[in-house]
Amino acid sequence: MEDQENKKQHKGGRNPKKDPSIHRYVFRLTDQQNAKFLSLFETSGADNKARFITSVLFEKQIKTVKIDMAAMDYYMRLTTLYGQFRAVGVNYNQIVKILYCNFSEKKAAAYLFKLEKQTIELAQLCRAIMQLTEEFERNHLIKKEEI
C-alpha cells in the first residue's frame, strides 16, 4: 500500500506549452484572393499556412524563392557537358602518350594531325557553347533592375 502511495501517477502526453496559441481568427477569401494567397504561400517556402499568415501580419521578412526549371536544366546539362570535356582532355593526353610510345614518329605525326583537326572542331564547339551560355544568362538569368 505504501509503495502505491509513494509512486506518483504520471499523466501521459506532452508537457504543456509555456505560451500556447489560444486565440483564433477566421476570415474568408474569394476564389481569386485564395489563388493569390496560395501562390504567395507556395513561393514563400513556409511550412504551414498559420505561420505564413502570422509572419505577413506582423511584418516579418518573408523569403520567396523562385526556381526556374529551364535554367536549372540548362545548368545541369552544362555541368554534364563540362565533365565530358574534362574526360576528352584526359583521353587526349593518354592518346598522345600512346601514339609516341607505340608508333614511329611519322605515323604518330599523321595521327596527331587528324586528332588536331578534331580538337579544333571541339574548340569551336566550346566557343559556341560559351556564347550561348552568355546569351542565356543575359536574357534569362540576370535580373534587370527597374527604375
Account of the protein in words:
- The protein is an all-alpha fold.
- Helix content is 67%, strand content 0%.
- The protein has helices at 2-6, 31-44, 49-57, 69-102, 105-141.
- The radius of gyration is 32 Å and the shape is elongated.
- The N and C termini lie far apart (82 Å).
Rg (CA only): 32 Å
Kindly report the average pLDDT value: 80
Main sheet properties: none
Low-confidence stretches: none
SSE arrangement, N to C: HHHHH
Strand composition percent: under 5%
Number of strands: 0
Structural class: mainly alpha
Helix content: 55-70%
Give the secondary structure arrangement, pairings included:
Layout: H1 2-6, H2 31-44, H3 49-57, H4 69-102, H5 105-141
Helix pairs in contact: 4-5
Q: Which terms would index this structure?
A:
single chain; 147 residues; mainly alpha; 5 helices
Care to give the gist of this entry?
This protein is mostly helical and 147 residues long. It has five helices and no strands. It is elongated and about 90 Å long.
